[in-house]
Amino acid sequence: SEVRDLITDSWEEPSWLSSGTGGAKAVVVFRITRDGTVAKVLLAVPSGMTALDKSAVQAVEAANPLPPLPAEFTNEYLDVNLEFALTR
């Protein structure tokens, strides 16, 4: 939830999109390395709205670096799928 909150704080939902676009969703896939570095940021599921897609990818990139992975997580990285949805 901390990672989600940090990325959400970096996200600027495109305000100029017309109302009635609520429900549009984009999914971004990225990797968090052991030290918290964000790598391999990809738009996995486009929303069909370029502004939303770009803002979602930029939010993940802007949150870099994230907190390091916890010591009890023994893998070298964590792959994350994060959905961005317009609320209006």
Care to describe what's here?
The protein is an alpha+beta fold and 88 residues long. It contains 2 helices and 3 strands. A 3-stranded antiparallel β-sheet has the order 2-1-3, with helices on one face. A hairpin with a 4-residue loop joins strand 1 and strand 2. Helix 1 packs across helix 2. The radius of gyration is 14 Å and the shape is elongated. It starts with a helix and ends with a strand. The model has no long low-confidence stretch (mean pLDDT 90).
Record the strand order, biggest sheet: 2-1-3
Report the β-strand fraction as a percent range: 25-35%
Q: Roughly how many Å apart are the termini?
A: 23 Å
Radius of gyration: 14 Å
Number of helices: 2
The residue ranges in which pLDDT falls below 50 over 5 or more consecutive positions are none
Overall mean pLDDT score? 90
**SSE string, helix = H, strand = E?**
HEEHE
Largest sheet: 3 strands, antiparallel
Structural class: alpha+beta
What's the total count of β strands?
Answer: 3
Please tell me what the overall shape is. Answer: elongated
Helix content, binned percent = 25-40%
